[in-house]
Amino acid sequence: MTVSRRDLIKVGLVTGTALSIPSVLRAQTSPASARTVHMVKGDLRVFDPIWTATNITADHGAAIYDTLFSLDSKFMPRPQMVGKWGVSDDKKTYTFELREGLSWHDGTPVTAADCVASIRRWGQVHPGGQLIMARASDISTKDGKTFTIALKESLGILIDILADLTPPCLFIMREKDANRPATEQVTTNIGSGPFRFNEALAKPGASITYDRNEKYVPRKEPTEGLAGGKVVNVDRVIWDVIADQQTAMAALQAGEVDYVESPPADLFSVIEGDLNLALQVLDKQGWDVVLRMNFLHPPFNNIKARQGVLHLIDQEAFMRIMYPDPKYVDTVTSIFGKDTLVSNEEDTGWYKKGGDPEKAKQLFKEAGYAGEKVVILDPTDWRESDNASQFLAAELRKIGINAELAPMDWGGLTARRAKKDPVENGGWSMFITAEFDYSLGNPLASPLLLANGDDAWYGWPKNDEYEALRAKWADVATLDERKALARKMQPIWWDFVGDVRLGTYVSPVAHRKSLTDLIGMPQIVPMWNMRKASA
Amino acid sequence: MAAYILRRLVSAIAVMVMVGIFVFLLLRMAPGDPAAIIAGKSATADMIAGIREKLGLNDPMPVQFMHWVRDMLGGDFGTSIFAGRPVLDLMSQRLEPTLSLSMLTMILSVTVGVSFGILAAWRTGGLIDRLLAVFSAFGYSVPVFVIGYFLIYFFAIRTHWLPVQGYLPIESGLGPWFVHLVLPTVALSLGFIAFIARVTRASMLEVLSEDYIRTAAAKGASSYAMLIHHALKNAGVPILTVIGISFAYLIGGVVLTETVFNIPGIGRLVVDAISNRDYPIIQSVLIVTSGLYVLINLTVDLAYTLIDPRIRY
User: Fold this and answer.
1) Residues with Cβ < 8 Å from B43, sequence gap 6 or more?
2) How far apart are CA A375 and CA A407, in angstroms?
3) B161:A26 CB<8 A
4) For an engineered disulfide with B267, which of A248, B85, B258, B293 has Cβ 3.0 to 4.6 Å away?
5) Does the CB of A414 have a partner CB in chain B at under 8 Å?
6) Quick check: B53 contacting A, CB < 8 Å?
7) Rounded to an integer, what distance in angstroms lies between the CA atom of residue B240 and that of residue B265?
8) pTM of the predicted structure, to 2 decimals
């Protein structure tokens, strides 16, 4: 059989056409519109931002709901849904009037009754909200757009609490939704915020779609942090759930998505080397890594043993193990976080670069440590914490502590950390967690800063003197007074060692350079203001 | 035959009941609290306790089990603890991607695998046979995620011929649907092609050494007639068995492939549900999967009668 030149040309043309079919089809199916933004985010499992304190649901809340007040970039509260507000001379009655143009996604107007019901529901679960409810003598409407909060005694930080960013945040819901108990999930997803939830395209676990709320009336002021006008510059935002980080990065490189919330640290150099991609730290305060100890059982029911751990920790080493890129980590010595309005350096003499294992050993000896088993809960599905847990076990063993790792997934850890039993009966001694640096600036909002024993967060630290000072937080009105109070609280905490800090880190997001004007704030990644340039 | 099918269907129900009890108990005994996961990392104990109460997780285990059985018998697969949506809705959303991927994978695996096996048996010891040996070693030993990343790198990132990830439903057009499934199908198929080809080759070699094949050759039958009409039909039973087993293995392989190529299928649904301790989803998916498994086995058994008339039930 002979092959002619004409046959070869035919074969070449057919092959070329066949090879080009996929890319032609792909071009037809790609999200061509520059008005659609694809963001790779975590899995939005729960849609009610009051029912859960997870950040992904807070992001969802920020998209579809609105807030009475919002924090600016300096963390000062500014009115958002509220048009005018005032407080009586005795500081006990606050009056709020809603601004013009607020309406629900179903077309009905936002009323003062919606706000009152929302405050009451949120007040069941948010620590600051619970404080407001405890002090309030009456929360009621005056007319369709005005409502009041009357207090039994003044509460200097009331506006700060209403604007607080620590989930569950005060998102205003329709009265009929907010009238449900806080333990019952609201699934209607009808808010008054700058985005509408697209129910028809919602595929939990796969993708969630938000459309621009064309009827939203933003404030006139320019955007400033979460405050000011929430101007939406895109038509649609799609949250894609891509479980595999490598695939997410490949999709970003190929231009299939515009934003990846948690790029893997080992691919930072790849991102930095790609001309189309950028790394950006949106939450400049980041996270504090916290080591919780069980106050109920030996050895950490002994203050000396806890102090031993405080002196043992080499924060630089822990951060190197958890987050190898030194650009994104730092040490932290304030219980109120590294960079909050009340962070301070009071009584931080315990901090020593490299740690002080000899002193730690001595303190454990003084505690009468007799080889009791120390069980460290090790969440193997959270790689950074897994690394840190293993390192912690090794460091403890070096000074003669009988440390044992209990590997499990995060789901298992959340169940076991609630057990108050001794380690022999399935209890625990230590686990590592992380908290937003921002949240640690408010001891009324962050459960990690409680020291009221059984009612405190896991580990159940107890110190009455510290708690008495923490209770005063609600009564101080000015920032200077709060700073002074924080300086008194911190030495007590470091003395009884309510917990131990392992360092602080920030997580950059990765995005295509065509995506600009992202707002950088803690806790919440807002979707307004951002722009997408044509590819 | 009808009595046999009925017997098998009854035994399928028994298997599903056993699976149901086993899964229910296993999930309740495994550590983990869905209420704590729902509430979030920094949630207070009060918040978690409230959610537990509302979800009925504080009820005694037998009570929870009876509620579940009652609902299942009424056709109610329950509501996702997390999403607050009916499990049946979530499963139906995820069924199409998984079925699409599975069907394309089986079509590709069976056509290529059987053809490859026949060719290798026909030219045993030749180039094709040796290539099959190399390919089989590759297909067996390289995990699907490695093949997946390799395909993504060359065909999506480097050449931009195909998308990296995602799935478009068939209603968005046959072309877009197919294009999104090319890479995952190829990645998932390689192992099955190798498996089916090896078994086909071995089975064909055995049949090709039979006297009647030599007789057919002596009578002047063409290679095609000999291979397809005489040999393949008689080598069919083991090949069909392997295809049935491949279907069962496919269920496991789909989970990894769906993760690598971000296909929102049943596999991803159940993996996410396990990490969230979303009991109703895990229970329902496993019940349905086990039923499917039994039905595939039944179909394969019945298909034997079509290939080999000597087999009767």
Assistant:
1) A52, A53, A447, B36
2) 10
3) yes
4) B258
5) yes
6) yes
7) 26
8) 0.81
